[in-house]
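Action item from last meeting closed. Structure (393 res):
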């Protein structure tokens, strides 16, 4: 759902089609304010939506309405609106565009919430006496969240009590900070987006806090950010995650409260999620003697293992450890069924080693598999060497 809807009226001294108007908008605004405000690029990034044009012909004139959904902020949306007004020609005909309204979609949603809250209060009052103070506080919290501030030289988005509070909540971005502020969490600070290193001011701030909770999205992006945090100098006491597949900014107040209440101490989290730990560097080849044949793991393979972290992919090798194929782990068993006996010598995978995989490996005479961890194994062919990342690294 967009944040704003830009409404404009257009009048053309000639008969034109919708495609002519849209073409004129893109053509006459291209490069006007640089690449940052190029409408095609903004559409590709999802910052503005599809431009809708509704036209009517009156005699030799064409008039109509233009609607542009925007996910930009207020200032940027106003700038786009002004840029649209610069269109003065459609095809060979002169034209005039005037902005008639900029609708704050979120404000309309809040108005509906308020009206619904009134209805709920009326119904509730007929059943039992409500605590009106609590209801008013909840509505005021939605309408007037605390002001967001900028912290440190990196200008990190944060809540107003981020320095005074003895506890700290670290989230991914500005939208997450706004969401938590809306529900009364004023000791929150954002990492400031995807950066190669953790902001120094955040590291220093966390050092003096009694409790630091990292609260991340429940998706693969959250996993990758957590890997970076765990290998940084940032003080972390607890890990909290949004429900699987959800982002922090999408959560309701109740979901945020539940997620933070279920935060796991960092040591306990690392034990349950060993794949997020930073792999140790090894310089010498690894030699395993768990089966009759001696298997030597070259240094090059160590680098491949590190490259597979977090990809959910697998690499198939020949006897000389030359890579044959790289595929998603979910397709691994079916792919192995198609290879010839002895064609594949070893497998390295960013996934769990299962009994089903070992069974098909035994049929195809595959000698070695290296995965993130072992599943529920009931039978192991003595001719297959099974190793985990921890064994190798």
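Sequence:
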């Amino acid at each position: 759902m967009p944040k704003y809807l830009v409404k404009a009226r257009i009048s053309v001294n000639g008969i034109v089609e919708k495609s002519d108007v849209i073409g004129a908008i893109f053509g006459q605004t291209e490069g006007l304010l640089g690449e940052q405000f190029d409408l095609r690029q903004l559409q590709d990034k999802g910052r503005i939506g599809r431009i809708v044009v509704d036209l009517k012909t009156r005699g030799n004139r064409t008039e109509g309405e233009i609607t542009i959904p925007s996910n930009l902020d207020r200032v940027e949306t106003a700038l786009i609106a002004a840029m649209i007004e610069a269109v003065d020609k459609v095809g060979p005909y002169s034209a005039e565009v005037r902005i008639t309204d900029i609708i704050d979609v979120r404000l309309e949603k809040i108005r509906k919430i308020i009206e619904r809250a009134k209805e709920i209060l009326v119904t509730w009052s007929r059943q039992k006496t409500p605590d009106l103070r609590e209801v008013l506080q909840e509505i005021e919290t939605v309408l007037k969240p605390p002001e967001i501030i900028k912290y440190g030289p990196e200008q990190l988005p944060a809540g107003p009590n981020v320095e005074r509070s003895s506890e700290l909540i670290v989230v991914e971005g500005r939208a997450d900070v706004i969401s938590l502020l809306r529900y009364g969490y004023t000791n929150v600070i954002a990492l400031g987006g995807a950066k190669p290193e953790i902001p120094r001011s955040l590291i220093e701030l966390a050092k003096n806090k009694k409790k630091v909770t990292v609260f991340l999205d429940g998706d693969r992006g959250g996993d990758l950010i957590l890997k970076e945090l765990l290998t940084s100098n940032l003080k972390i006491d607890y890990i909290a995650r949004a429900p699987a597949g959800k982002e922090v900014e999408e959560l309701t107040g109740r979901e945020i409260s539940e997620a933070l209440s279920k935060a796991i101490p960092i040591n306990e989290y690392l034990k349950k999620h060993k794949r997020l730990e930073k792999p140790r560097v090894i310089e010498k080849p690894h030699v395993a003697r768990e089966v009759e044949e001696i298997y030597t793991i070259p240094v090059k393979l160590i680098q491949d293992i590190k490259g597979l972290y977090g990809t959910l992919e697998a690499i198939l090798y020949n006897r000389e450890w030359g890579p044959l194929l790289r595929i998603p782990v979910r397709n691994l068993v079916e792919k192995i069924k198609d290879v010839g006996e002895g064609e594949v010598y070893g497998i390295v995978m960013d996934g769990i080693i299962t009994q089903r995989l070992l069974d098909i490996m035994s049929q195809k005479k595959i000698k070695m598999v290296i995965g993130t961890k072992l599943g529920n194994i009931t039978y192991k062919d003595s001719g297959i060497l099974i190793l985990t990342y921890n064994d190798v690294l």
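Note appended to the action item: The chain has a mean pLDDT of 84.
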